[in-house]
């Protein structure tokens, strides 16, 4: 057991599905600031610490899925390596076949998590949250917008019209989901909520259905108060049948790009508030990891692992509502 472990009691172990892409590694130049290693570290961490996870390789999103949120010209240019050099620089990764494959798999993982959540109440993508990708361009380490793709895909999979299967995207990455807001601006069947650093990237923000900008240095109390208010507004304006939750680690006080001051405990309360909101309304949740750029990569992994452990507890609670209580166990959330 690691020092400082926080324990989450589980009533019985079920197999929450978690979709991974970490074995699709981008060939990045030395010194590149994207923390690619965090994904493999995260999978190893939760396999060791979170009982009952069902780890599954992420499926590959095909062109039909990508075209739910992106233009044909953009999908073709990315896939063939024909993006304008300036557009490629906006993404922040050099082009490679591995970049294309990993980006398709990351979108596929969120689609699969939505599908699994419909059956199980919750599922997680151990990557995803690529919310800076627009319909016709990428940006900020985001190639394809997995949340926008998955929202429209799950609507079609539901067997209902989009109006009869509304989806909420709750984006708690520290950076505004500008690409998501742009893609879904005129889509009344998907509600976009973004709680982010007001002065942080992107410096030109798009209009989400609900944007809450936070001041630099915002800590636990102010953040959680803003989140409660945002979820109250969401509940009053929209009745989602599915939530896609971007659980960014970058509001953490140790994040080098975040500019906020949330503690690990504050981020646990953040995640729990989202899960409670969904549980009380019986709304399935697909969770993605989104951003995290800690000065110490272990801090970022700890935040993401905590989110997954809390999601596992939520899965127990969801199942218990239908199946009754079982044996008790304990789950360590390492600080």
Salient structural properties:
single chain; 335 residues; alpha/beta; Arginase, Chain A; 8-stranded parallel β-sheet; disordered N terminus
Describe the overall structure.
The protein has 335 residues and is of the alpha/beta class. The protein has one domain: Histone deacetylase domain (Arginase, Chain A). α5 packs across α6. The chain has an eight-stranded parallel beta sheet with strand order 3-2-4-9-8-5-6-7, with helices on both faces. It has a two-stranded antiparallel ribbon with strand order 1-10. Residues 1-11 and 325-335 have low confidence and may be disordered. It contains ten helices and ten strands. α1 (37-49) links the parallel β2 (17-20) and β3. It has helices spanning 37-49, 63-66, 72-80, 85-91, 97-120, 146-157, 178-183, 220-237, 264-281, 297-323, and strands at residues 6-10, 17-20, 54-57, 122-125, 167-171, 190-197, 210-214, 242-246, 285-288, 329-333. This is Histone deacetylase.
User: Mean pLDDT, as a whole number?
Assistant: 93
Overall geometry comes to: globular
Pick out the low-confidence regions. Answer: 1-11, 325-335
CATH topology value = Arginase, Chain A
Largest sheet, in brief, is: 8 strands, parallel
Strands, total number: 10
Q: Strand order across the biggest sheet?
A: 3-2-4-9-8-5-6-7
- The CA-CA distance between the termini, in Å, is 11 Å
CATH superfamily: Histone deacetylase domain
Q: State the domain count.
A: 1
Structural class: alpha/beta
Number of DSSP helical runs: 10
CATH class reads: Alpha Beta
Radius of gyration from the alpha-carbon trace, in angstroms: 18 Å
CATH architecture descriptor text: 3-Layer(aba) Sandwich
Fraction of residues in β-strands: 5-15%
Q: Into which percent range does the helicity of residues fall?
A: 40-55%
What is the string of helix and strand elements? Answer: EEHEHHHHEHEHEEHEHEHE
């Amino acid at each position: 057991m690691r020092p400082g472990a926080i324990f989450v009691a589980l009533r019985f172990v079920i197999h929450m599905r978690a979709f991974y892409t970490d074995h699709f590694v981008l060939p990045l130049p030395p010194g590149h600031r994207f923390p690619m290693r965090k994904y493999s570290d995260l999978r190893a961490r939760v396999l060791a610490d979170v009982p009952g996870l069902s780890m599954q390789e992420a499926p590959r999103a095909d062109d039909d899925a990508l075209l739910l949120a992106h233009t044909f010209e953009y999908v073709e240019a990315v896939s063939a390596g024909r993006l304008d050099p300036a557009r490629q620089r906006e993404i922040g990764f050099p082009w490679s076949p591995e970049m294309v494959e990993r980006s398709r798999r990351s979108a596929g993982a969120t689609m699969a998590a939505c599908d699994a959540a419909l059956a199980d109440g919750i599922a997680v993508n151990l990557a995803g949250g690529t919310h800076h990708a627009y319909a016709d361009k990428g940006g900020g380490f985001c190639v394809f917008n997995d949340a926008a793709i998955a929202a429209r895909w799950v609507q079609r999979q539901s067997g209902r019209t989009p109006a009869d299967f509304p989806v909420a995207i709750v984006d708690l990455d520290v950076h505004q989901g500008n690409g998501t807001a742009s893609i879904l601006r005129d889509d009344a069947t998907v509600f976009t909520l973004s709680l982010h650093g007001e002065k942080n990237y992107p410096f030109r923000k798009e209009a989400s259905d609900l944007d809450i900008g936070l001041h630099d240095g915002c800590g636990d109390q102010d953040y959680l108060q803003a989140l409660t208010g945002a979820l109250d507004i969401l509940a009053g304006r929209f009745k989602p049948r599915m939530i896609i939750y971007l659980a960014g680690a970058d509001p953490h006080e140790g994040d080098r790009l975040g500019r906020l001051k949330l503690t690990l405990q504050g981020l646990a309360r953040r995640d729990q508030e989202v899960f409670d909101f969904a549980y009380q309304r019986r709304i399935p949740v697909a969770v993605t990891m989104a951003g995290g750029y800690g000065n110490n990569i272990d801090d970022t992994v700890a935040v993401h692992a905590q989110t997954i452990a809390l999601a596992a507890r939520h899965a127990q609670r969801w199942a218990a509502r239908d199946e009754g209580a079982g044996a008790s166990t304990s789950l360590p959330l390492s600080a």
